[in-house]
Design a protein that fits this description.
By secondary structure, this protein is of the alpha/beta class. The protein contains 8 helices and 6 strands, in the order H-E-H-E-E-H-E-H-E-H-E-H-H-H. Strands 4-3-2-1-5-6 form a 6-stranded mixed β-sheet, with helices on both faces.
Length: 205
């Protein structure tokens, strides 16, 4: 998605490449956006070369199914060192690196700086702005997604007399989505009675 536009941002910021990473617990929005990959590892987007993934061996097969054509296995104990070795091998300049500052924890950033003694440019807001403007393909996907959600909600309403608790309704919504092979943006929010005033309420019994 919009890799060409993002590379123009890198050139404008004089960054040699962008580095996005997943720790494995929660997927980086930018890795999902640019690579459609949810697993642990890193996505490198050089301004003048094709993008590539660097992942643990256990995630290699999964990463190979992403649209990113080149996938490297990392040394299991040397995350950033593995990336550094690959950038060196591919002769990618490493003077200025673009990162998502919103997704870089302080310990990870310190570890990163030990390996890459470079200047960094935060592209969090640039990526956010890029993702906010939808392409025709993305609009088609959103419409399809809305149709799925609408049908699942209709099914829940039609079966409403069978539910005894908020948790049962939430479980039904989640089950129906999973049954269709869909991922949820967030856990279903089902709030009855006075609980309906809380936007981020967690369903209870």
């Amino acid at each position: 998605m919009k890799e060409k536009e993002f590379k123009n941002i890198l050139k404008a910021k004089k960054a040699d490449f962008a580095l996005f990473y997943n720790s494995g617990m929660e997927a980086s929005p930018n890795m999902v956006y640019f690579a459609q990959y949810y697993g642990a590892g890193a996505l490198i987007i050089p301004k003048n070369q094709p993008s590539f993934l660097v992942v643990p061996e256990m995630e290699y097969e999964r990463a190979k199914k992403s649209p990113i054509k080149k996938v490297y296995k990392m040394d299991k104990k040397k995350f950033f060192e593995s990336i550094g070795a690959i950038t060196k091998k591919r002769k990618i300049r490493t003077k200025i690196v673009a990162i998502d500052g919103n997704n870089f924890s302080l310990p990870v950033y310190k570890n990163f700086k030990k390996t890459f003694k470079v200047k960094t440019k935060d592209v969090f807001l640039d990526c956010l702005k890029l993702r906010q403007t939808k392409t025709n393909k993305e609009i088609t996907i959103l419409k399809k997604s809305c149709n799925y959600a609408n049908n699942i909600l209709k099914k829940a309403i039609n079966n409403f007399k069978d539910f005894k608790t908020e948790s049962e309704v939430a479980a039904f919504l989640e089950y129906e989505a999973k049954k269709l092979g869909l991922n949820l943006s967030f856990p279903p929010i089902v709030a009855s009675g006075k609980n309906g005033s809380m936007p981020h309420y967690e369903p209870k019994n």
